[in-house]
Amino acid sequence: MATVAVAVATPQIRKSARSSRAMSFFLSHEIGLFSEIAANPAVLECTEIMEPDQKAKHFPVILITGTPGSGKTTHAQLLVQESPIPLQYVNVGDLVKDKGLHEGYDEEWQSYIVDEDKLLDELEPTASAGGLILDWHTCDIFPERWIDLVVVLRCDHTQLWERLEQRNYPINKIQENNESEIMQSVLDEARKSYDHGIIVELRSETTDDLENNVERIVRWILEWRSNHGFKRNPEETIGMNNKKSQES
Ligand SMILES: Nc1ncnc2c1ncn2[C@@H]1O[C@H](COP(=O)(O)OP(=O)(O)OP(=O)(O)O)[C@@H](O)[C@H]1O
């Protein structure tokens, strides 16, 4: 009997095909530095400044993920406001809906069945350019080379239940998300999909958590810029140039 080989481009296969080993080494190195810096701000002083690569993106891509209701959108919106660099915000769920990047609607789960190829093609130019926050409850489809930081938000499951109830989600959807949070499914998915060094798990239960998390991500952005040979804060550059031109 003839054997027919059927090639199925699973998200994992496609992802590894699109990723680059050199890039993942680079990213793990840079986030390794981030962890050290978080532990000891003095490390900032001895970070080596590299020459900027003209083709390299100037701004990072940050993926904010977590169980629905964990606070991704709330964090992303505050981060856009607080960020020292321009960041484009993409709510992936909204993009799928608005651009029809799906294969239909699942009534039972009240969600769209995402066409992953269409979604990746749509995001590719923006993600490659950098300066992007991706907000999605799942994270394993994005190529590793796109992503510089993965923020996984966590929330106490009873609090999460209340947040989802307030949205009038059907009970099966609340239960599924609740179990997913208890089983830390999104965190595990992130760990399977990205270098552990670029993943940060943050609690999102109070407004203090929100502010501290955003502050921490802003510090990381500045450090990312510095590690890639750019001015930590582009506004500082503008300020300095303006001052110089006024002085001259
Ligand atoms: N750290 C926090 N402290 C207090 N309330 C929060 C916090 N994070 C989120 N919330 C609240 O929880 C609710 C859900 O937040 P949000 O919409 O940001 O979640 P999400 O993860 O983006 O959800 P989805 O994946 O469904 O889009 C909102 O009412 C928001 O105000």
What would you say this structure looks like, in words?
By secondary structure, the chain is of the alpha/beta class. It has a domain at 55-92 and 129-228: 3-Layer(aba) Sandwich (Rossmann fold), CATH 3.40.50.300. Helices cover 50% and strands 14% of the residues. The chain is built from ten helices and seven strands. It has helices spanning 11-18, 21-39, 72-82, 92-98, 116-129, 157-166, 171-182, 185-193, 207-227, 234-247, and strands at 61-66, 88-91, 102-106, 111-114, 132-135, 149-154, 199-203. The strands form two sheets. The protein has a five-stranded parallel sheet with strand order 2-5-1-6-7, with helices on both faces. A hairpin with a 4-residue loop joins strand 3 (102-106) and strand 4 (111-114). Helix 2 (21-39) crosses helix 9 and helix 3 crosses helix 9. It is globular and about 50 Å long. Bound molecules: adenosine-5'-triphosphate.
Describe the structure concisely for a colleague.
It is found in: Cytoplasm; Nucleus. With 248 residues, the chain is α/β, with parallel strands linked by helices. It contains ten helices and seven strands.
Bound small molecules, by name, code or SMILES, are: adenosine-5'-triphosphate
- Gyration radius (Cα, Å) is 20 Å
CATH topology of the domain at 55-92 and 129-228: Rossmann fold
Question: In whole angstroms, how far apart are the ends?
Answer: 83 Å
Total number of helices: 10
The portion of residues assigned to helices is: 40-55%
Strand arrangement, major sheet: 2-5-1-6-7
CATH class value of the domain at 55-92 and 129-228: Alpha Beta
* CATH architecture classification name of the domain at 55-92 and 129-228: 3-Layer(aba) Sandwich
Low-confidence stretches: 1-50, 237-248
User: Major sheet: size, sense and barrel closure?
Assistant: 5 strands, parallel
Mean pLDDT reading: 79
Overall shape: it is globular
Looking at CATH, the homologous superfamily of the domain at 55-92 and 129-228 is P-loop containing nucleotide triphosphate hydrolases
**Secondary structure tally: strands:** 7
User: What proportion of the residues form beta strands (DSSP E)?
Assistant: 5-15%
Structural class estimated from helices and strands: alpha/beta
Order of helices and strands: HHEHEHEEHEEHHHEHH
